[in-house]
């Protein structure tokens, strides 16, 4: 089932399938290493739910939920 990154819960693992959006935001997301085939794990959410922290290629990355909504993922265990 196709989901976006902002729909995952703490501890969920997934693989990036597509980065949507356009312009500077899409370029920034890709520059951070979130390209198709990249494995990610949701580490935690801030107390009010935004931003979220994910683990990508052995580093932690914080994203706003609005940015995470542009990243399509395929969940796996």
From TrEMBL:
Keyword Iron: yes
Protein name (record): Fe(2+) transport protein A
Annotated gene: feoA
Residues in Ferrous iron transporter FeoA-like domain copies: 3-75
Keyword tags: Iron
